[in-house]
Known about the structure:
Distance between the termini: 49 Å
Mean pLDDT: 93
Structural class: alpha+beta
Shape: globular
CATH class of the domain at 35-157 and 368-376: Alpha Beta
Number of strands: 12
Strand order of the largest sheet: 3-4-6-5
CATH architecture of the domain at 35-157 and 368-376: 3-Layer(aba) Sandwich
Low-confidence stretches: 1-27
Amino acid sequence: MTSRRNVLKLIGGGFVVAAAAGAGFVVTSGPSQGAREPWRRAGTYGEFRRRALSYALLAPNPHNRQPWIVRLDGQDSLTLYCDLDRRLPATDPFDRQITIGCGAFLELLVQAAAEDGYQATITPVPEGEDMQSLDQRPIAHVSFASGIASPEPFFAHVLTRRSNKEIYEPRDVPAADLKQIAEAGRIFGVSSETIGNTEVAERLRDLTWRAHVKECMSPIAMQESVDLMRIGAAEVTANPDGIELEGPMFEVGRLIGLTTRATMADPKSTAFQQGLALFRSMAMSARAFGWITNENQSRVEQINAGRAYVRLNLMATKLGLGIHPWSQSLQEYVEMKELYREVHDLISDGKRIQMLFRIGYGPQIPPTPRRGLEAHLV
Length: 378
């Protein structure tokens, strides 16, 4: 068996040279460029709805499922549906998080349309809703009117917005910056709070870490994530969605059989244990947290939570801060029941916590892969 130390020695040069069937080949360690093409194409389409949609598909969403299907209606409207094959039934049994991702999509759509002078009017769940499960009914109908919208200041940061899942620097976030982030999320009936490096933050560091371990040790929940892992740049290029695992360590691990879906799902494997160690370091590096809440009485409130979240994510981007959703403890499957109750007792103020996230100073990272506009149009 190859040890972690030997793997790191192999990684040292930034690339791996291997031999297969008598021929040599080189695997570079960089991220897939093809999977990031939609970020470069955003805003380049001639038709205004496609132009707005090319920005909307850059929205944050759970497990990067990108669950959006759009039908263009006539010349001045569209209808958004959920791609029902892209839900997360194990960890998101009531489709709450998927709906939040649709709300983030709609918010970026509105902002991008306004940049072109179009006012986008959203009619959410126009054919009714089911709070137990999404179905074939639309998430929203959107109509556009030209010449009556002003650009949104947040929009300037759309292309640099990230979900920064790296280890954060050991420095506190200024209270003034945390206040601006919280205020950016107080919209559409959503409550938004942030805290710095306090006793509550210490408890949240511990709680979010325990929730991550609980998910990893719950076989069905963990397998849902493992099935969505894209290991190495070639897999990310072929499937620009899900959980991308790129970089030299993953490329080497894939080549020597150390990093596979089987090992990532096996609690006894080196890959599994290294993954846990990495996530613990990420959790413990959090020097600030934020969360958004509302009553969660309808799909509309979940949509509004997504719209509010992307706005505060853009504010954090403007301030040079990283945001990383850490929502395992908010998930509604049976194994998470006790931690769900614990986090709500700690910070919910009697409401439903829709998003919980850490805030801090992280390194610059590439954008998350996207499937591109044509993949979302019917």
